[in-house]
């Protein structure tokens, strides 16, 4: 199994996703600031993986903090949490993981007898648990979602919502994995996903490792394929889902959803509850990260556009709920109206 980000020997370890598919490197981090940097520069990416990396990074920061007493440790902990909250703005899982670590820390502080060393290790245990629970959530999503995967047909995915985007197994690719493990046979068209090529570099790498048939396409080919009847369903992940079901995901997802509707192809989102933000009424309230111009003006450091050209580079877009057939979560499948179905699942 691919382990994307995990705790080992008092360090945070992660696959270097910037090096894939050319090199399979596992990096070791002993300084929480470097973990925050790895989230910022996409060494680790994908909403659930970002959340797990942040939780582990916070635990690492607390473990290595020079604080001599609980008051000092609390000040350090809060400062570290703030640093992680500034890494990437869109992935709900990041803020969910930080909130969970904070809640755990406050709970631990209620025990007046607890010493700083025990506090530090309890934070490590909680962060490890967040990672383990993420994998379990993905497996549950796989079981809920596999019935939607057509047998002997083509399906399409965008970006990477696989093991690499989570602690392991994946969300949208987890659903495809579960369907494959249950004996269904299908073919995956993977959008290359400009500008950072998560589809070409990461999704294709994952699918080829699992021997699930995959064909790489550029993003602008999806409509033609759908129009030819060669795509029977679309499966993507999400970075943040509002209470009404509007879903932010990698830039280009919205265009795909519109194309899917036009071609009568069902459009599924797979995401754990840690991605769902019931505090936001609609997708209009989701903060969208803007990324550096260089991601668009070049490819692998080779310039593809004239120097000085203006660039627009949002990392995500929002798909309005009307284009979404169903949202596959770790608590069950939400259907329209999503405001009601998501609320019902959240009360479970
Ligand atoms: O910029 P990235 O690579 O972090 O964007 C990732 C995506 O948009 C994924 O589709 C999303 O996080 C869901 S992954 C389970």
Architecture overview:
With 348 residues, the protein is an alpha/beta fold. It is 41% helix and 17% strand. The strands form four sheets. Strands 6-5-4-7-10-15-16 form a seven-stranded mixed β-sheet, sandwiched between helices. Strands 11-8-9-14 form a four-stranded mixed β-sheet, covered by helices on one side. A hairpin with a 4-residue loop joins strand 8 and strand 9. The longest helix has 30 residues, at 116-145. The protein is globular and about 65 Å long. The model has no long low-confidence stretch (mean pLDDT 98). Residues 45-48, 159, 161, 165-166, 171, 198, 237-239, 249-250, 315 line the site of 5-S-methyl-1-O-phosphono-5-thio-D-ribulose (MRU).
From the N-terminal CA to the C-terminal CA, the straight-line distance is: 30 Å
- Number of DSSP helical runs: 11
Inertia-based shape: globular
What ligand molecules are bound, each kind once? 5-S-methyl-1-O-phosphono-5-thio-D-ribulose
């Amino acid at each position: 199994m691919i382990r994307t980000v995990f705790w080992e020997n008092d360090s945070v370890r992660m696959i270097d996703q910037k090096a894939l598919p050319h090199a399979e490197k596992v990096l070791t981090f002993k300084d929480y600031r470097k973990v925050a940097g790895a989230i910022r520069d996409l060494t680790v990416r994908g909403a659930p993986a970002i959340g797990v990396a942040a939780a582990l990074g916070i635990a690492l920061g607390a473990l290595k903090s020079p604080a001599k007493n609980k008051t000092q440790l609390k000040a350090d902990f809060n400062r570290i949490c703030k640093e992680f909250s500034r890494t990437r703005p869109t992935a709900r899982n990041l803020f969910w993981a930080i909130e969970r670590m904070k809640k755990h820390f406050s709970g631990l502080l209620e025990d007046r007898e607890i010493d700083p060393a025990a506090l530090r290790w309890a934070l490590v245990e909680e962060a490890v648990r967040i990672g383990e629970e993420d994998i379990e959530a993905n497996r549950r999503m796989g079981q809920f979602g596999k019935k939607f995967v057509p047998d002997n047909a083509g399906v399409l995915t965008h970006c990477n919502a696989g093991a690499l985007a989570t602690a392991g197994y994946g969300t949208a690719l987890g659903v495809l994995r579960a369907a494959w493990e249950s004996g269904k046979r299908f073919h995956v068209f993977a959008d290359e996903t400009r500008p950072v090529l998560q589809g070409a570099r990461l999704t294709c790498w994952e699918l080829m490792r699992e021997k699930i048939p995959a064909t790489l396409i550029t993003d602008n080919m999806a409509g033609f394929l759908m129009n030819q009847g060669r795509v029977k369903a679309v499966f993507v992940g999400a970075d943040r889902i509002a209470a009404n079901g509007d879903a932010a995901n990698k830039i280009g997802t919205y265009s795909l959803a519109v194309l899917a509707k036009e071609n009568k192809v069902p459009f599924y989102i797979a995401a754990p509850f840690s991605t769902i933000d019931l505090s936001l009424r609609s997708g209009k309230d989701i903060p969208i990260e803007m990324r550096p111009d260089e991601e668009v003006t070049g490819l692998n450091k080779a310039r593809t556009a004239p120097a000085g050209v203006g660039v627009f580079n949002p990392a995500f877009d929002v798909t309005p709920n009307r284009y979404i057939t169903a949202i596959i979560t770790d608590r069950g499948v939400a259907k329209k109206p999503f405001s009601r179905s998501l609320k019902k699942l959240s009360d479970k």
